[in-house]
């Protein structure tokens, strides 16, 4: 059943998040706040880490240690550095580091 769950997670993001205006593999720095796709934004079936920018755009984060740590900083303004990675046609931010602004 784990397999089904992880498939649902990526599939459910199509059309529910904004398209990052960066090409794949590009290193980017984006400011925004951590938001849970399920609990905060009601966009996803499952809890999934997202970054919400000041202009209201929502970009999905790849599940990694940094993204998980950012959860404890929910509501704070963060500067997030990472790489754009495409998964199932959706551009994710693969977080490499972040800092509270």
Please describe the topology of this protein.
Blueprint (H helix, E strand, L loop, with lengths): L1 H10 L15 E10 L12 E4 L5 E3 L4 H6 L7 E10 L2 E11 L1
Antiparallel strand pairs: 1-2, 1-4, 2-3, 4-5
Please give the count of helices.
2
**Quaternary organisation of the protein chains:** single chain
Low-confidence stretches: 1-9
The overall pLDDT, averaged over residues, is 89
Rg from alpha-carbon coordinates: 12 Å
Strand content: 35-45%
Quote the distance from N terminus to C terminus.
Answer: 40 Å
Structural class category:
alpha+beta
Helix fraction by DSSP (H/I, runs of at least 4):
10-25%
Q: Please tally the β strands and state the result.
A: 5
Q: What is the overall silhouette? A: globular
Sheet bearing the most strands, described? 5 strands, antiparallel
Secondary-structure element sequence? HEEEHEE
Tell me the strand order in the biggest sheet.
Answer: 3-2-1-4-5
Describe the structure.
With 101 residues, the chain is an alpha+beta fold. The chain has a 5-stranded antiparallel β-sheet with strand order 3-2-1-4-5.
In short:
The chain is 16% helix and 38% strand.
Descriptive key words:
101 residues, alpha+beta, 2 helices, 5 strands
